[in-house]
Amino acid sequence: MAEFDLSVFYRDVLSRLLKENLLRLHDRLLVVCAGPFDREVLLSLGFTDVTITNLDERQKETGGAAFAPYTWDFQDLESLGYPDGSFDIVIVHSGLHHLRCPQRGITEMYRVARRAIIGFEPHRNLYTALGVRLGAGQEYEDAAVFYNDCRWGGVANTEIPNYVVRFNRGDLERTIQTFNPIARHRIRCFYATRIPARLQGLARQGLVGRAVGALTGLLAALGRLPPLANNIAFVIEKPRIPEDLFPWLTVVNGRVACHRPWFEAKYQPLDRDGR
Question: Could you tell me the residue ranges of all domains in the chain?
């Protein structure tokens, strides 16, 4: 049974976006909640202008030299210290579910992005909920803390295991449309399935293992179907103004404003008493 490689999914999605010209190798990228894994993937694809951020205190001693040739910055995704629209694209890989408020992280990504945000996170559906109930998936991410010397890797990169928030397309849409309700955002999702380590272990054990191996192989093959995928990648493009604005909005003096004629055509005018 071939084991799922997160870097392959990461590269494949970014490569597809490069071919579609939504991403460009010279774009100014911000990669949040990032680590060496992100550096390796982005460097292998040829991106040149990348700022990598995280809450790793250890990097302060060297100025993030481990991320060269890219720039490193100590930043909290829930409160980024950058002006609006500072970067062409903002990327997160398996970082939102480590935040105290993932929705805040998504909106901060959106705020500092000029064109789009891209994310890779655990997927929320009945399949993954069942996996957690059966112990095949984690409800709290204790493994990440254990493999970081029980000192880091949890919520906000502390030693406290984070609750594993999982996302689906509806969660993303509700977050973004609530934050910026000026247009219908373009949201695209890609899916894949990673077989949990516990099941991979069972698949190597005797006759029962063969049955489990066959099942997990089938799940992996069907993993691009949203109902069976436990990983989701998403792209949220910022709306074009004024083309994408809802009809009840317009641009006045460079800012989005109420389009009064639209409302006047829909509603009866008020009388002098405001009725």
Answer: 6-239, 243-275
SS3 of the chain: the string is CCCCCHHHHHHHHHHHHHHCCCCCCCCEEEEECCCHHHHHHHHHHCCCEEEEEECCHHHHHCCCHHHCCCEEEECCHHHCCCCCCCEEEEEEECCHHHCCCHHHHHHHHHHHEEEEEEEEEEECCHHHHHHHHCCCCCCECHHHHHCCCCCCCCHHHCCCCCECCCECHHHHHHHHHHHCCCECCEEEEEEECCCCHHHHHHCCCHHHHHHHHHHHHHHHHCCCCHHHCCEEEEEEECCCCCCCECCCEEEECCEEEECHHHHHHHCCCCCCCCC
Q: pTM for this structure? A: 0.85
- CATH number 3.40.50.150 given to 6-239: yes
pLDDT digits (tens, 9 = 90+) for 168-208: 999 999 999 999 999 999 999 999 987 655 544 444 555 54
